[in-house]
Design a protein that fits this description.
- The structure is a homodimer.
- Chain A has about 150 residues and is mainly α.
- Chain A has 2 domains: about 15-120, Arc Repressor Mutant, subunit A; about 120-149.
- Chain A contains 7 helices and 3 strands.
- Chain A has a 3-stranded antiparallel sheet.
- In chain A, a hairpin with a 7-residue loop joins strand 2 (about 80-85) and strand 3.
- At the A-B interface, helix 1, helix 2, helix 6 and helix 7 of A face helix 1, helix 2, helix 6 and helix 7 of B.
- The structure holds a DNA duplex (30 and 30 nucleotides).
Chain lengths: ~150, ~150
DNA sequence: GTATTTTAGTACTATATAGTACTATTGTCA
DNA sequence: TGACAATAGTACTATATAGTACTAAAATAC
């Protein structure tokens, strides 16, 4: 008899609640024209700027169709720009604007606040182990999706 | 210097990828008119049926406005019914239909497949610890949201 | 070197998600 | 018991998310 597992269910719930809290915190910090979903894209670009959309598909785990419309909005609000890759004209290079670069410090303050709530009452060791497991699971899932598409 | 943490970012990505895989698996198992999001609500009702919407807010971690429209659709497709609570007329009691009850076995088969992918390569002990941490985090976040609303 | 396949991205459509503002019912307290 | 506050849910609106079907460019095969 297999034990009842509900990791996916728990992950969904955590994502839901933490997203709502994060959005509220962004607004409290006067960041009104950016939300959690868009933040994930900007966050990824802070790690590595000037990438094609296909790279963002990997880094954010969003589908490319989702990214197309989110990038539309981020372009409208001047957080990113798109330009064609001259070497490979199928590709679109996404870059951060000055506006989004100057937001980084403030955004990181919100992230730190959020992490405090998220990991409330857990030791550094527990957090390390937890994030190691998260990375492992994400890798398994991504491989699976890649293989079965 | 605080260590860089990205639990929330990882959770979002896992939710995204696992949701896409789960949706695909549902379709492979001929469950075409139900998706992951709706499944979360039905799953919750299998644990405890005939509950007001406010209870589903807690069990699914969705907002009540989200639930209103999702229940509309689930009612249309005859997975649930709504009736007024005679004792407290502000409340609406949500119940499973025969259709959703008879789906349970098949849905659980998909869940088990999904869990195999999700926890690929992890020991029972690691999974136990991981789910314990998830429950802890969900509790912290829910309390926080409750207190600051 | 053309034909085919693969890759990169978008348009369109449908559903998921949540916020704000609202109605109706119940609870509270002077 | 009547005014006010709290609770339960919905209507409306905006954005997030992804699937299907498409176009264009590059890579590959013969």
């Amino acid at each position: 008899m297999q034990k009842l597992r509900e990791g996916g269910f728990l992950v969904s719930k955590i994502k839901q609640v933490s997203g709502r809290i994060f959005d509220k915190k962004l607004r409290e910090h006067q960041i009104t024209d950016l939300n959690t979903g868009q933040g994930r894209i900007i966050f990824s670009l802070w790690q590595k700027d000037q990438v094609p959309i296909s790279e963002l598909v990997i880094q954010t785990a969003l589908s490319k169709t989702t990214l197309t419309s989110m990038l539309d909005r981020l372009e409208q609000t001047e957080y990113i720009t798109r330009k064609m890759d001259e070497k490979d004209k199928r590709k679109i290079i996404v870059s951060l604007t000055q506006k989004s670069k100057s937001l980084k410090e403030q955004y990181e303050a919100v992230s730190h606040e959020m992490i405090s709530v998220f990991y409330e009452g857990l030791s550094e060791e527990e957090i390390d182990r937890f994030e190691k497991t998260l990375n492992h699971i994400l890798l398994s899932l991504s491989k699976y999706e890649e293989d079965y598409k």
